[in-house]
Amino acid sequence: MEENKAVNTVEKIDGQVNKTVETNAFIDFKMVTFSLADKDYAIDIMHVKEIAKAGRFTYVPNTLPFVLGVYNLRGEIIPIMDLRLFFNIEVPESNDKKLQNLLILSVDDQTFGLVVDKIDKVVGVQKSTIQPPHPLFGDINIKYISGVVESNNRLYVLLDVIKIFASKEGTEVNTSQVQTAEVNSVISAQPKVEELVYDSEKQRKVSVKEVQNEKTEVDIKFISESLMNFKKFYVSPLNEDWVKHRYEEWVKLRGESKVQLQTAEDAESFLKPFWSQFTGDWWSKEYAQNLKKLLPDNAAKQLVVWNPGCGKGLETYCLACVLKERYPDAKIRIYAQDIDLLNVSNAGLLTVPEEASNQWFAKYLIAKANNEFTFNQEIKDSIMFEYHDCKNTNVLPMIDIIFARDILSLLDSKSQDAILDDFLEKMKGNAVAIIGENERMPSSYGFGEKSAGALVAYNKE
């Protein structure tokens, strides 16, 4: 039985690290760089699980010449392939006991190790700087190259590992031919170590997992900037949990190569699940009942309600009907505001089409001569539509209910903080604030919360 040696953490990566880091370019692609026959190559960091050193691999008969054998990596038997032999590059003779430089890769749920001459560092570049492959790389078939990129005066050939290892039949090693029990007995005692690579931008060693997490953060930063530019949507502690969750869905939907938002249509598609239910539409009976459950007991003779971002007024009229049912004896005053002058000017004239006249709010409607309906005078009198920007200081009295769905995410972070401070200042002791279904009050404000369905009401604790 051949003796396997445990994987060692890379204590030092060969090669001189260039201390100059370009700070004027935003990094959205990271790659692990290495050399073969003194030429610089790279692989997308997303395929690299670990960087390691190992030797004395277990030979497996009847395999292709570039398959050196198998190795037990912390209990997992993985095939080891020599990338130099794969590309028909001459390999200098070496002592069998010498530790080899290994890139542990994951491709299509398969894990394997690649032997290379020297592992260099992690390099970050912009995807836009990656150029198409060129036939001048005669020692490697161009179909195995996804592109070339220059960084710090070095030209890297970016390999397409998916094409490489899908192109040759028989690259899978039949591990049943190996005496796995004997191999495990040698390896089982080895300590688990965290594999490190050198990040030239941080000037220190980092784990591959850390680099992958940073790539996700970079992608989300790009998405946040695109949402701001295309849709005036501002990512903040108010909505960042939703954005991160949506990003995970977006990657599965679009794939890694198309994750960024290139157009306003992309941004609109990304945000489509964000908006609260019945935005721009009449509320369902269930939605109205859930809101009614969240409204606190209040025996006051007059209730003041603030509804910023009222749009065309559909949600304001639905809100007024729910409030009338919940507080039948109170005088209700709703300050409905929007910065769309046309919408807010026409909101007071809103009519209900005949097909919607049998909804839960039907008892608050009166018929018009043209077969349309309108809300009765009591409901209309409870609403004051105003052309107003909620970012500006207003003279509203102390408030019992704030209904501001999704509007906060359309304000910059500074304005969000100012509005939330305004909420705390203007809310009465038993008041509640209801914001977008995918928005969450930052914990720093100390709001208590109560939910019903998709709705959440926040109150002063």
Figure out the total of helices.
11
Structural Rg: 31 Å
| Strand arrangement, major sheet | 17-14-13-18-19-21-20
What is the straight-line distance between the termini? 69 Å
Helix fraction by DSSP (H/I, runs of at least 4): 10-25%
Mass-distribution shape: elongated
Largest sheet: number of strands, sense, barrel closure: 7 strands, mixed
Q: How many strand units?
A: 21
Looking at how many chains there are and whether they match, the oligomeric state comes to: single chain
Mean pLDDT across all amino acids: 82
Report low-confidence residues grouped into runs of 5 or more.
1-24, 167-194
* Beta-strand percentage range: 25-35%
Category from helices, strands and their pairing: alpha/beta
Quickly describe the structure.
By secondary structure, this protein is an alpha/beta fold. Helices cover 25% and strands 29% of the residues.
Structure description:
The protein is an alpha/beta fold. It has helices at 83-86, 161-167, 180-187, 208-231, 240-254, 264-271, 285-294, 314-326, 341-346, 377-381, 413-426, and strands spanning 29-36, 39-44, 48-54, 67-73, 76-82, 100-107, 110-116, 118-125, 145-151, 154-159, 196-199, 204-207, 302-308, 331-338, 365-367, 373-375, 383-387, 399-404, 427-435, 447-452, 455-460. The strands form 5 sheets. Strands 17-14-13-18-19-21-20 form a 7-stranded mixed β-sheet, with helices on both faces. A 5-stranded mixed β-sheet has the order 8-1-2-10-9, with no helix packed on it. A 5-stranded mixed β-sheet has the order 3-6-7-5-4. Strand 18, helix 11 and strand 19 form a beta-alpha-beta unit. The longest helix is centred in the middle third of the chain and has 24 residues, at 208-231. The model is unreliable at 1-24 and 167-194 (pLDDT under 50).
